Amino acid sequence: MPLEEYARKRQFEKTPEPPPGKSTSKSAAKPYFCVQRHDATRLHYDFRLEIDGVLKSWAIPKGPTLDPAVRHFAAHVEDHPLEYGSFEGNIPAGNYGAGSVMLWDRGTFELLGDASGAEQMARGDLKFRLHGEKLNGDYALVHMKGRGKGNEWLLIKKRDQFAEPGWDVENYAYSALSGRTQQEIAGNLPARKTKRKTAGAADAIWVSDRPAKRSAKSAGSAAAPAKTAPRKKKPQLTSRA
Ligand code: MN
Q1: What distance in angstroms lies between residue 44's CA and the mean position of ligand 1's atoms?
Q2: What separation in Å is there between the alpha carbon of 40 and the centre of ligand 1?
Q3: Ligand 1 mean position to 73 CA, how many Å?
């Protein structure tokens, strides 16, 4: 009953999160992965891999990375139902994990090596290749045995053509599903009409440009003359080209 803990922590009449459903693996397709940016008590990223009909899950305070030089702590948490993989929205105050949830990245993955997912989980050394919108390439999740509560793992990017030294997750803080920022999700604003392209310099410029357009539009009459100026995103992104 791998989803018992998931269900026990939640009251499904009070949260928009999905109850455990009937979905199991889509046999033919590659397994699914996703990352949710979760602004709960502490901001973190929830990293999920479809293995044996559920989403194996890790909470990563610093988020995933494309930088092979850093190892980010990943707390192994309870399995989530496959339905959770498309969830984006707000968990109301008073509920477990209250706060906004962004579907930050999604795609498919393949396990590397001959061992099954269950075997790799059991040995505490998962190796896989991601095919996401933001994350790509080879990764390892490694269990630090004999430490703390026993749930401590590390997420490590392998060196490959997708590796990017200095890569900063916070430069990509928008939804893969709706294009929204965390604040826009928290405010229940609608999805953006223009699908964001793969993140990169051009996208970064567009992002930093965006608040200006919006405040001009919504200012309507009196308020903001141009100089009241949009809270600017740091321009650091634009130097990443
Ligand atoms: Mn979470």
Answers
A1: 6
A2: 7
A3: 14
**Which residues have their alpha-adjacent CB atom under 5 A from ion ligand 1?**
38, 46
Same domain, 209 and 171: no
Residue 150 and residue 48 share a domain: yes
Q: How many angstroms is it from 12 CA to the middle of ligand 1?
A: 16
* pTM of the predicted structure, to 2 decimals: 0.79
232 alpha carbon to ligand 1 midpoint, in Å?
A: 28
Same domain, yes or no, for 111 and 204?
A: no
Q: How many domains does the chain have?
A: 2
Question: CB within 8 A of 207, min separation 6: which ones?
Answer: 174, 233, 237
**Are residues 218 and 182 part of one domain?**
no
User: Residue 229: its pLDDT value, please?
Assistant: 42
For residue 227, what are the domain limits? 200-241
Q: What is the pLDDT at residue 28?
A: 61
Q: Are residues 175 and 205 in the same domain?
A: no
Mean pLDDT for 191-205 is: 58
If asked whether residues 141 and 26 sit together in one domain, one would say yes
Q: How far does residue 223's CA lie from ligand 1's centre (Å)?
A: 38
> 168 CA to middle of ligand 1, Å?
20
Residue-wise DSSP of 86-155: G--EEEPTTSTT-EEEEEEEEEEEEE-SSS-HHHHHHHTEEEEEEEESS-EEEEEEEE-TTSTTS-EEEE
- For residue 194, the one-letter residue type is T
Same domain, 47 and 70: yes
Q: Residue 192 Cα, ligand 1 centroid: separation in angstroms?
A: 24
